C-alpha cells in the first residue's frame, strides 16, 4: 500500500481494524496523552481524535504502537527497503547475486526526491501556531509540544536537499517566555545533524533556516528517526519506504514538504536561546528547563483536512519502543560493517536506550593462548563508545562468544554469561568527565557524566548465587536483600543525602562485607530505595539501576582500590538510589485518570478497547 498522505493511512488502518475514532470532545491538556497511554498499555489500536478542544484539526496517535501495526503500514515496501539498505551496507551482495537483488533497483527509483513548484505548498492554507492542537502531555510540562516533528535543515556551506538533515527534535509551541505564534523552542541533543548545520551558520554569521514538517505519509515520520548508512539521506529513505518519491519545493528560501499535513518555517539566529521545558521524556523522568535554540516563526501552513500526529513518551516501553524495533530490523546489520568484529549491539529500551548498551564481539587476537581474556572486545568497546549516538551510553557490557551463542536480547542470560566470566580485578574500565545523553540527569551536569565498560571473555570463573547469600542478611543500615537475577542482589539503603554521606555509607557497607568473607557468587549488588520494586522484574532492575547512577560517582566495590590507575574490586556495588539533583519521575495526574473513564464507558468511543 502506497500512501500519498496521512489520511490514506488512517483510512486503511480503520478499514482493517487497526484504528478507532474518538468522536467526543477531548481536552488536549493531559486528556489526549492519558488516553494514548492507557490504550498503548493495553496493546490497543491507533486513535483518531475527531474533536480536539480548542482546535479545528483532528489528531492521531499510537500509529506505530505495535511492531505488527507498523509492519502492516509498510507491508508493501519493507522488504525492498531492507534489501536496498543491505546492499549499501555490503555492496558485494549485489555483485555475488545480481538477480536476487534486481528488485532493489526498481525500489530505488522512488528514492530521488521530486522538486515541485516554488511558493506556498499546494493545497495548503496559512494558519497560526496556536491553531494547532495544544497538546500538553504530563502535568509539569512547560507547555504544548510537537512530539513527531520532522525538523529539516540544510548545510549552509553546501545547500540543497541532498545535503540536508531531517531529524526528530521536539518543538515547544507555547509556554515559558515564547512569544505566542511568533517563536518556538527546538530541543536538539548532542550528536544531532542540525547542530552541525547551526554551527556552520553561526560561523557564517547568519541565521539557520529551519522547516518543521508534521504528518504526511508515515514513512516520512519514521525517516526522521533513522540512523542511516553514511551517504543515505533521510529524504531518499522516506521515498524508498513510502514507495513514492518525496515531493518538495521552496517557499521564500525555505524547503517545504508538499506531502506533509503541516509545515512550519522559521530561522534560528546565532546565540539566540530561550528556556525550554520541562518535558516528560522517554527515560521516564522530566527533562528540566534549559536554554535551547529558539526559532523565529515565519509561516505556518496546514493542508485542507489536515491530521496532527503525536506520540507520548515516558518510562519505557512506549510507542517509541516500536521505533527502536523497526530501526533495529532495518539497520541492525550496519553496525557490523561500521565496527569490525562486532556481532551485535543492543541499546536497551527498558533502561532508556542510551544509559545501557549490551554487546557481543569477537575475540581473535591471540587464538594460540589457552587462557582467554578481553583483548579485541576492548578495542571494539572503545569503537562502540566512539560511534555516533552510541557514544552517549553510560554502561557497556560486552562479551565474546566462545562455545555457546550469546544473545543480548535475552537480558538475564546475557548478564549471567558476563557475570560468570568477568574478572572484577581486571575487566572494569572507566571513562570520566565525558559526554552522556542530554536527557540523563544522573551525571554531573547537562550532557556531562561518565562511562564504564564491563568486559568478559574466556571460561566460566564462578557459579552465580540463585538465593540471597547469608552474608547479605542482617547488615547495618542496609536491609531487604532480594534476588534480582542470578549473581545480582538488591539491597535497600537509607535515603541518599549527599555524596559525602554516600561515600561514608557505601564504604562502610564494603568494609562490613569484606569482614564477612568471600562473596564470589554475587559479583553485583545494587543499593536502592526500594529493593522489592527493583527486584520485581527485569525491566524495573534495568530502569532504576541504569537511569539513576553515574558510574564514576556511584560504583563502589568490596576490597576496591587502584593499582597503576586501574580500579578493581571483588564485588561491584552500584548506588542506584534517587539523588537530589536528578529529575523527578513521571507520574500521571489522578484527576485526569478519573476524568477519561468516560471514554471507556458503555456506548462511548473506546468501549471495550481496554479488554480487547
Ordered list of secondary-structure elements with their pairings:
Blueprint: H1 6-15, E1 19-22, H2 31-41, E2 46-49, E3 58-61, H3 67-73, H4 78-89, H5 92-96, H6 102-108, E4 114-115, E5 124-126, E6 145-146, E7 149-154, E8 164-167, E9 171-172, E10 183-186, H7 193-204, E11 208-214, H8 218-223, H9 234-242, E12 247-251, E13 254-257, E14 262-276, E15 279-280, E16 286-287, E17 290-303, E18 307-310, H10 319-331, H11 334-338, E19 342-347, E20 356-361, H12 376-384, E21 395-400, H13 411-421, E22 428-435, E23 448-456, E24 479-485, E25 488-492, H14 499-515, E26 524-528, H15 531-536, H16 538-547, H17 551-554, E27 555-558, E28 561-563, E29 566-568, E30 571-575, H18 590-595
Parallel strand pairs: 1-2, 3-18, 4-12, 20-21, 21-23, 25-26, 26-30
Antiparallel strand pairs: 2-3, 5-17, 6-9, 7-8, 7-11, 9-10, 10-17, 11-14, 12-13, 14-17, 15-16, 19-20, 22-23, 24-25, 27-30, 28-29
Helix pairs in contact: 4-6
Give the N-to-C terminal Cα separation: 26 Å
Amount of helix: 25-40%
- What is the radius of gyration? 25 Å
The description of the largest β-sheet is: 9 strands, antiparallel
Structural class: alpha+beta
Number of helices: 18
Number of beta strands: 30
Shape, principal axes of CA atoms: globular
Mean pLDDT across the residues is: 92
What are the defining features of this structure?
612 residues, 5-stranded mixed sheet, 9-stranded antiparallel sheet, globular, 26% helix, single chain, alpha+beta, 18 helices
What does this entry show, briefly?
The protein has 612 residues and is α+β, with helices and mostly antiparallel strands.
